[in-house]
Specification:
6-stranded mixed β-sheet, 4-stranded antiparallel β-sheet, alpha/beta, 13 helices
């Protein structure tokens, strides 16, 4: 099928060294720290206590609200307690985790399988995804049942995203090569849930082995496989929708409003396992890559595994190791320690060597070269956004589309003046969010103040009315004839 070219972007060296060895499972670690926040929304509420024995798959965290998700035990064992620990959250704050010591028996508590899902109502399948704690594994970690819930916009096309565009990350590539049947079956399942008439499964054109495996697995199905150009950020939702359909998802709109839904390949496989096998989401595939690790590879790991255990399973650190990153080099989060657990969003542990790091010089004045605008896939003007943020002109940041920035990092990557554009945009978004919260708090205070003032006016009017009535009654008594009762 013909494809379209999204604006901006760059062709980066894929460096998929972690996809070369076959996918293997990490041996169960001696200790797990299972974060209660592994999704968008509020952290789950712990529903186990210290000393309790749990089975693998048992719910240990209750979703707190519709945008939250349940958390399940990745292993059978004993709960040591609920601890506060660094989980590599972008805000840098420690969050609650369930500390679990596996017993090595891996006794399971599965949900009843639903093998006849093709005849199951969509609501039943969505409830199962909710029960299993399935979230988007492409990075957004939004609860999948909420993302696919009916919202008044019928879906005609489901896009399954295997365009793993960020360098070094190869977990989706490894999953598609090793478990192509689960990816295609999960794609059909989610297409059935949505009522989509068309299912497109996209992989980048350099993923030849994954494409071959998927071709075999998709034989006899209605799934259309599409090899899309290797171009960063091809895996971005809006960029992939445009590449495959030519539909431009504008600012302030969603793909659903155009009849399109987009899910990650790992999400599709997890949905299939939750429905057909009755397994909650308790593990994921993670790439361990970079010249700072001895044996780059992709591993299926229990959620809550420490980064240190992944690096050890990949052969350990090399003398060249300089920086640890959770995620990819463009959008990942630098870690100060390897004692951080991997959650549902943890797709890659990157150990970079000194020569893989970009030398960071002093920030220089913008020379108006326009390179940042040329590569921006969201058609923004990064240099003007940067000036508006530094000037504190928040009206201008809204007009210039700060909210549409996907933080892909390309603008900072090409900037010859080494201006930390992405960091500044993240600051700007945080500042806008804080201002919005303050404005909402002020609005609520004003509403309460006005309601109080109105109540005081009503009470004062009532008192005056009662006083006037009493005075009138007294005048009537004084005017009454003597002897009248």
């Amino acid at each position: 099928m013909s494809t379209y070219v999204f604006p901006g972007g760059l062709r980066l060296d894929p460096r998929k060294q972690a996809s070369r060895p076959p996918l293997r499972c990490l041996p169960m670690p001696a200790r797990l720290l299972v974060p209660l926040l592994q999704h968008a929304g509020s952290p789950a509420r712990a529903c186990v206590a210290a000393g309790e024995r749990v089975l693998a798959g048992k719910r240990i965290g209750e979703a707190d609200g519709e945008d939250s998700a349940h958390v399940h035990a990745p292993a059978s064992g004993q709960v040591l307690g609920i601890v506060t620990h660094d989980i590599g959250h972008p805000a840098g704050q420690p969050l609650p985790c369930v500390e679990l010591v596996p017993d090595g028996r891996q006794d399971w508590q599965r949900m009843p399988p639903l093998p006849a899902w093709r005849t199951s109502p969509p609501a039943t399948l969505a409830a199962r995804l909710r029960e299993a704690g399935v979230v988007g594994l492409g990075g957004a970690v939004f609860p999948t049942d909420r993302k696919l819930a009916p919202d008044g916009f019928p879906v005609h096309t489901l896009i399954v995203n295997g365009a793993e565009c960020e360098p070094w990350i190869a977990c989706d590539d490894a999953l598609m090569r090793a478990r192509a049947d689960q990816v295609t079956a999960g794609s059909e399942l989610l297409g059935h849930l949505l009522g989509a008439s068309r299912i497109l499964l996209a992989v980048e054109d350099h993923m030849r082995e994954a494409l071959e495996a998927l071709t075999d697995a998709a034989a006899g199905t209605a799934i259309e496989l599409v090899a899309v150009p290797t171009r960063y950020p091809q895996g971005g939702e809006r960029q992939l929708v445009y590449t495959l359909t030519g539909i431009e998802v504008g600012a302030g709109t969603t793909p659903r409003q155009h009849g399109v839904a987009c899910v990650n390949v790992a999400t599709a496989a997890a949905a299939w396992r939750a429905v057909v096998l009755g397994e909650p989401l308790v593990s994921r595939v993670v790439s361990v890559a970079g010249r700072g690790v001895a044996g780059p590879c992709s591993l299926e790991v229990p959620l809550g595994t420490l980064v240190a255990d992944l690096v050890e399973a990949a052969g350990g650190y090399t003398p060249a190791a300089q920086r640890l990153v959770l995620g990819g080099p463009m959008m990942g989060q630098s870690l100060a320690s390897d004692q951080v657990p991997v959650g549902k969003s943890g797709n890659c542990v990157l150990v970079l060597a000194a020569d893989e790091l970009r030398a960071r010089g002093p920030e220089l004045p913008c020379i108006r070269c326009g390179e940042c605008a040329r590569v921006c896939p969201a058609r923004l003007l990064p240099q003007q956004l940067d000036a508006a943020i530094r000037a504190g002109d928040w009206v201008a940041t809204s007009r210039l589309g700060l909210a549409d920035c996907i933080e892909c990092g390309l603008c900072a990557y090409v900037c010859p003046s080494q201006i930390p554009l992405v960091e500044r945009f993240r600051f700007g978004k945080g500042e806008r969010a804080w201002q919005a919260q303050e404005a909402e708090r002020a609005r609520r205070s004003r509403v309460l103040f006005e309601a109080r003032q109105a109540r005081l006016v009503r009470e004062q009017a009532a008192r005056e009315a009662r006083l006037r009535a009493r005075e009138a009654a007294l005048r009537d008594d004084d005017d009454a004839p003597a002897g009248r009762p």
